[in-house]
Amino acid sequence: MADLVPYHDRDGFIWFDGKMVPWREAQVHILTHALHYASAVFEGERSYGGEIFKLREHTLRLIESGRMLDFEIPFSPDEIDQACRETLTANGLTDGYIRPIAWRGSEQMGVSAQHSKIHLAVAAWNWGSYFDMAERLRGIRVGLATYRRPDPATIPSKAKATGLYMICTIEKHRAERAGYADAMMLDYRGHVAECTGANMFFIKDGEIHTPTPDCFLNGITRQTVIDLAKRRGIKVVERTILPEELGTFSEVFITGTAAEITPVREIGPNSYTPGKMCETLLNDYMAEVQPKSRAAAE
Question: Can you tell me the distance from the alpha carbon of 108 to that of 40, in angstroms, rounded to the nearest whole number?
């Protein structure tokens, strides 16, 4: 990966605690609580044609995620929305990826951190397809993860918190080493849950089946796709999906802000052929996120 551009050494600007600062100067101390204890929450957002898709929904989830980690972000929803828009503009982007993140600072070290300052930063950059485009169009290969999504009695699973992604990184690395693009994770009960950073949808007999998000994020893209399907009169069933059912589905796709809609051609030993349902919903989603298309629909 000789052409890799490190994220700490780029041109541009990052919104940091209310000020726009040069990209390379947006730094935190090594003893920041979030680095040691994962006390941070974040969002992933995309802008299409200069407009951030479902910005307010992302902002409200960010604020609520902070509350689940027992801290209040010291900016209002309007201020956070504006920070995201200003960061996009400052970096000269119309189509881009936006990453707000809030975290506990370096005032206290140790598990207890009630007096740590809460910081907020927003970065934005060009980020194309989450998966290789050629691979994405014909469907990605998904391996089977070892780690499982945890019991919500053990961790705030509804928060988009940094610590919840540790096992996702481990499993994505494991999958990529084995030649897969991603990994499918079960939940603590052994039910089908999600991929390492995306929700999952399964198609059988013209209906869409998707796992009930009771111990993992009910993604904003997931909710959008369910709405798009229902607009077309497609039945969507949210239910428990067992691993032994994987061979009974005809099409599979995953969803997320980064992944958008990505068809799947393989999960472990099970093969699928991306077809009309995947194509239709992918086209509907890409139309939905365009500002002109949304304005016309409204």
Answer: 15
CB 119 within 8 A of CB 35: no
Q: Do 133-293 and 13-125 fall under one CATH topology?
A: no
**How confident is the model at residue 2, as a pLDDT?**
43
Would you say the pTM of this structure is higher than 0.70?
Answer: yes
Q: Quick one: pLDDT band at residue 134, thresholds 50, 70, 90? A: low
CATH pick for 133-293 out of 3.30.1330.40, 3.20.10.10, 3.40.50.300, 2.160.10.10: 3.20.10.10
Mean pLDDT for 52-79 is 98
**Residues recognised as catalytic:** 160
Interval 163-167 mean pLDDT = 97
Q: Are strands 118-125 and 45-48 parallel, antiparallel or unpaired?
A: unpaired
Copy the structure tokens of residue 6.
């490190």
